[in-house]
Amino acid sequence: MHYHTFKMLEVIFILLALFAMWYAFSNFSSFKRIFIGRPMRNKELNAQHTKLFWILALPILSADLYSSVAYGPEAGITELLSLGESAKWLILPITFSTVFLLAILILSYIMGVIAYPNGGGAYAIAKDNFKSPYPSLVASSALLVDYILTVAVSVSAAVEAVSSAYPVVAPYETLLAILCVFLLVVINLRGVAESAVVFAYPTFFFMACMLFIIITGFTNEFHDGFVQNTTPPFGTFPQGLTTLLILKAFSSACSALTGIETISNAVPIFREPKQRSAIKTYIALGILTAVTLSGFAYHLYVKGVAPDPQNTMLSQLAEGYFGHGLVYQLIIWSTFIVLILAANSTFTGFPQLSAIVAADGYLPRALTNRGDRLGYSNGILSLAGLASILIIAFRAHTNALIPLYAIGVFLSFTVAQFGLLRRWKRVKDKSWQAKFAINLIGTVISAVVAVIFAVTKFTSGAWVVLIVLPLIVLFSCLIKKHYVEVANSLRIDPKVTRPEQHHIVSIVLVSGIHRVVNNTVSFAKSLGSEVIAVYVGFDDESIERMEHKWEEWGEPCRLVVLRSSYRSILEPITRFINAMEKWEGGKPDHIHIVVPQFIPKKWWHNILHNQNALLLRAWLFRHKDVIITTVPYHLEK
Amino acid sequence: MHYHTFKMLEVIFILLALFAMWYAFSNFSSFKRIFIGRPMRNKELNAQHTKLFWILALPILSADLYSSVAYGPEAGITELLSLGESAKWLILPITFSTVFLLAILILSYIMGVIAYPNGGGAYAIAKDNFKSPYPSLVASSALLVDYILTVAVSVSAAVEAVSSAYPVVAPYETLLAILCVFLLVVINLRGVAESAVVFAYPTFFFMACMLFIIITGFTNEFHDGFVQNTTPPFGTFPQGLTTLLILKAFSSACSALTGIETISNAVPIFREPKQRSAIKTYIALGILTAVTLSGFAYHLYVKGVAPDPQNTMLSQLAEGYFGHGLVYQLIIWSTFIVLILAANSTFTGFPQLSAIVAADGYLPRALTNRGDRLGYSNGILSLAGLASILIIAFRAHTNALIPLYAIGVFLSFTVAQFGLLRRWKRVKDKSWQAKFAINLIGTVISAVVAVIFAVTKFTSGAWVVLIVLPLIVLFSCLIKKHYVEVANSLRIDPKVTRPEQHHIVSIVLVSGIHRVVNNTVSFAKSLGSEVIAVYVGFDDESIERMEHKWEEWGEPCRLVVLRSSYRSILEPITRFINAMEKWEGGKPDHIHIVVPQFIPKKWWHNILHNQNALLLRAWLFRHKDVIITTVPYHLEK
């Protein structure tokens, strides 16, 4: 086939695709049914089958946290790369302190679940325990920004994992990442429980893979010894090691801890008893993550693996044990899937949190609308849109963002823990001192880590977070102010303010004497108010012809003819309305414009008819205080 | 600056750009003023200052034809490349027969201008001389398709010319080409005469460059002899030369002749006396083109230049005379400008032709709308859109399309000439026999060339043209049929059919008792027709509360409460309308739905209010026969 024959087919294909998009748009509802499924009734909201059994909730809600095991220890030790061989053993204390922090945080969050069985996210806790709205808004803004970053980072990392195994897809990374986001949108618009069933088993498989690597490592060490010839020396303090460097390494390793809050936000989606289920999930997840993190750190130390930007340490370890065969392929693909699931867990968290905040009036109210399938559609679409912008801007290479979102996470941890502290002091229920102590440790540690992040990463972009967060809080307050003001201005006393009789003048736009005009004039006259027909002419001849025809038609109402010098109908009509608004004495309360609109039988016939009515309507609505009635005329053919 | 700080700034930039686009869109009219200029009055349409003096019309209307000199002879001789050195002299007979054909065609078109002083394009001539609409539709479809191809080809060639001189822009060819199309749109929306003044001088400069090359060639030959050692042998018939090959070479060379019809289509844009001006322009253009084509062919023969895909023959010739210095740069840039002008001349032709065809009812009527600046805006935008699709699909490498559009050109030539033949026979004015003879030759030659094109280029894509053209003709006929049927169904006898009294029931959608609802109910009740308030509730509690409040409000009209099981307001309202349509006895003639709509003070406040009214309106309008009134409520704050 010739080159340009091929290209011609491409043009035809583009035109067909445009046509298909147009068709899909104009027949949106049936397409929606195919992709999204049948609508669900209100009462299905509380039905058990959209609720999650905890074993199924584990993969959905923990993918964000658990997937970080793949890069946490590496991120920490990379900061110490410049210190050479003698610093390698530091991967052990750094990872173990991360695991310790993980334990504290999970304990603190279990306290949160105990205190708030109906979903104790940082926002809800702060709202309940602080009079001022600012702590809760700081928490929610930080979390919402982090959710967006998580989607961008996880999807990009998933695509990168695949493209490092199959370099052929490398040029299409951005496109693939956007496609993945689109898929997540479709799945989440379908509803939560169904996506759990789809995704639960692959994540279990990933967890099994990770545990298999750790077991393989121990087997290897039983055979070849716990100190091998690759094992670096232990316990020496390398030259040049400063406190700042240790803090940097520690805070980078802590980026593995993002995602802990997902479960506490999502308590209501658990099957009953939801509180116990959530706590079980937390404990199971904590043990799994701790074992995996510690195991990896230990094996990496024994094998003396060093960071390499072309090949992750996890991948180096797996290669060392299994070579480049089937097991390696399985690990790559399960990594891909778990990273997509990390993004998916965010698609549960973001819409729920934004709906709660919007219900309080701090975000646009549209975020509280549930779609046909009971998901918060607007939240899902906003998340996908903002994450896609990040993916496109960073061309699907978003690793640099990972440390940034840790600030937001630890900021919201701190707010939540501090809120719980205030609660225990106020409520003073059974063994409140123990709970208080746990959350006190949690508060202090989260706050310290947040500050360490902000200081050590300030020049690497943390400043952006420190600008964006206050801005979001400011906008939230402005939105709340607007809603309060609108509600106040709309409130009436039903006993005092009652509907009144208004003086209405109806203006019918006529373009000639034909069936459409007959229909429109009939409607306007039947309403009973005063009717004026308005004709816009472009030259004397057409104006005279119209006046003559109107007389012949028996002058069903008063006719006003307007001359247009600019071929526009907007300008003379605006002039006429302005004049009416200044009518002395008889100025009407409402000017009521009646415009006919063609409704052709086939939607694509619309392109054949000038839709002046629509343009006129949009323009007048923006610029003048008029009431507009559109009278459809359904063409039979 | 760190990599991700930089990227962050990019994200902020993207968000700002999106915001700017949104702002520009919502303040469209002021942006339009800046780019397009003040609106012009109807009477300015016939004012002399938008009309063109013929010397200025020459560059505007001839760029399409004249720019082809750069590739015509080359396209012809390339077909004979395989025959070797001994075929090189054939560039002379092939080019001279092209020049001969040019002379015949220009003469024939001058006959057209004499016969049709008000614009004698192929479409107008065919319409006037054939009873059947098909010949004129074939001509107009062929020309419209060619105009689109011309824009794509010329703009792409212009960008390629620049990028071969400056390889640094090569990766951005598609983007640059689209930008050029956008620029042409802006210039043409501003109006015809102004663009002439902008573009006339650079084209003159290109013409001067071309003539300068030819004169330099002759000077060179006076010095170094008319037979140089590079000159190939003359007059030998190479082995393997077949009739088909000669025809192929001839037809490829004839692709240089596209664009002749532009002047005859555009007679009305000339300054008076327009007929004489158009003929003067034709003669000047014919002489210029003939001299340039012949001169090039001769010098190319003397220098023995061979086709080279990396370097055009014209560029090789110029390099031979002037080296790679300033003169070469000037030639490259003037080539760029003249090719852009070739596209620009099409922006004059396409909108005019499509407006004429649309006025006859064979294309969507919107193409006849003149914009603020008197240009046919919809035609200009359609042309730019379709050409952009071709440019994107072919990644700005559209050379392969050049021979294709020659088919359309010669097809329309044939139709026009044949129409003129019929006219001379019918009118029989002064010396009609001579005119008849000229057009007879023109008809036969155009027809033969069109057939040669279709046969020799069939497998290289001509089949696409032979499929697309009949389809366009078919669609044109369907459009005409639709308009005729609509006009018939709308026609009434003003003495018989008069406005009647209709029974109207107004439905007011209420969401509670507040100021907006008070305003809407007041309006509906003041109209005087029967009013029913409809409330959609999602649960029993809200329904009871509403019923109680309504009572407290003094029941200004009947209240109907509907329950929604799917959180949708569309579904219960549709059910209610369906029920009303089946009311026995009292079925109303019109169901009139009154919906309130918030108009916030700041346009961006719209995002804070659920625009359910708009969605409801769009949906009901498509699916039900109801009249919809939108009552604006202007928020004071």
TrEMBL record, chains A, B:
What's the protein's topology in the membrane?
Multi-pass membrane protein
Q: Where in the cell is it found?
A: Membrane
**A Pfam family of this chain:** AA_permease_2
Primary localization: membrane
Q: Does the keyword Membrane apply?
A: yes
Q: Which UniProt keywords apply?
A: Membrane, Transmembrane, Transmembrane helix
Q: Does the keyword Membrane apply?
A: yes
Q: Which parts of the chain span the membrane according to its record?
A: 12-31, 52-71, 91-116, 137-159, 165-187, 199-219, 239-260, 281-301, 321-343, 374-396, 402-424, 436-455, 461-479
Q: PANTHER family under this entry?
A: POTASSIUM TRANSPORTER KIMA
Give the protein name, as stated in the record: APC family permease
Q: Write down the species.
A: Paenibacillus gyeongsangnamensis
